[in-house]
Amino acid sequence: MSHRLQQVSALIQKDVANIIRRELELPAGVIVGVTKVVVGPDLKFARILVSIMPETEAEPVLKFLNKNRLTVQQALAGQLTMKFSPKISFSLDQTEMRAQYLESLLDKIQKPETEV
Question: Which of 2, 14, 19, 50 has the fewest CB atoms inside 10 Å of its own CB, making it the most exposed?
C-alpha cells in the first residue's frame, strides 16, 4: 500500500471513529471500535472494519451501521479535504475471532495426551 493510501486510511479511521462516537446512538453497553480501513486505489471506496463488543450484538449493530452509513459518509465528507469523499461500507473484523480459534487449536495440539 502506498504512503498516501496509508495516510488517507489512518485519517478516515480516526474521523469515522469520532463520528460513530459523537453522532450515532448505539444501544446501551455496546462498544464499537474501528480497527482498520481499506481504501481503494482511486480513493473512491473505503471498507471500514469494525469490532463490536459484546459479540452477541455484532450483527444488529453492523446492520445499524450500514443503515446509517450515509450519515457517517456525509459527516466524513465535511471533515476531509479531498476532491472525492469515498463511499463507505462497514464490515465486521474477524481477526480476533480467528485468533481465538487458532489459539484453541494450538491448545488442543499442545496438551500432552495421558498415557494408559
Answer: 2
pLDDT tens by residue, the chain, 116 residues: 789 899 999 999 999 999 999 999 998 899 999 999 999 999 999 999 999 988 888 899 999 999 999 999 999 999 988 888 899 999 998 887 777 788 888 888 887 665 54
Q: What CA–CA distances, in Å, run from 34 to 18, 54, 110?
A: 10, 15, 34
Domain span holding position 51: 3-110
CATH code, 88 = 3.30.300.20
- Residue 116 forms part of a structural domain: no
Give ∠ CA 83-71-34 in degrees, rounded to 5: 85
